[in-house]
Design brief:
about 170 residues, alpha+beta, Alpha-Beta Plaits, 2 domains, 5-stranded antiparallel sheet, 4-stranded antiparallel sheet, 3 helices
């Protein structure tokens, strides 16, 4: 964990979390920007959706460290979906087409690298709306794929986690 800078008056900092393991057993780490939660020493809110960690999205609340294999514990979901877009070729043109459309739905581009885009958007935008949008835009760019980072069980990649039911239930 990296402490906030001396000039930083917010609780923003970074955490290095285990995103997976190499074939030789060495841990693959992902550094995430987080906000330390007041009145706690070990609870944080993610400032962005992760690129590689499964099951988390921007705004989720975690405990770190935790005594489990992952090293963190998910305490509360934010209701945000993590959407990852990948392409072997440069993604600039995809980002130019997709980002404004996601922003119209109150989504945000959390990370952009030459071959990866990571978006956060609240589940209330609607799965069907998002999937139609993503399929339409991604379909214009051969070799581009997208997937959810926190919708399916990381253990098998196909079982829906269903966490969104509480966010979509009528009040």
């Amino acid at each position: 964990m990296n402490p906030p800078s001396q000039q930083d008056t917010s609780a923003a900092q970074t955490l290095d979390l285990i995103a997976g393991y190499r074939s030789d057993g060495e841990a693959i780490m992902e550094r995430l920007n987080v906000d330390a939660l007041p009145d706690t020493r070990d609870e944080f809110r993610l400032r962005q959706s992760p690129a590689f960690l499964r099951g988390l999205a921007s705004g989720d609340r975690i405990r770190f460290p935790a005594r489990n294999e992952a090293g963190y514990e998910l305490l509360r979901r934010s209701g945000n979906l993590c959407i990852r877009v990948l392409r072997r070729d440069d993604l600039d043109s995809v980002a130019l087409a997709l980002t404004p459309e996601m922003e119209l739905l109150d989504g945000s581009l959390d990370l952009q690298t030459p071959r990866l885009l990571v978006y956060s958007i609240h589940v209330s935008a609607g799965f069907q709306t998002l999937e139609v949008l993503l399929d339409r835009i991604v379909g214009q760019f051969p070799g581009t794929v997208w997937y959810y980072g926190n919708v399916y069980d990381p253990a098998d990649g196909v079982t829906p986690l269903d966490w969104w039911q509480e966010f979509l239930a009528p009040v």
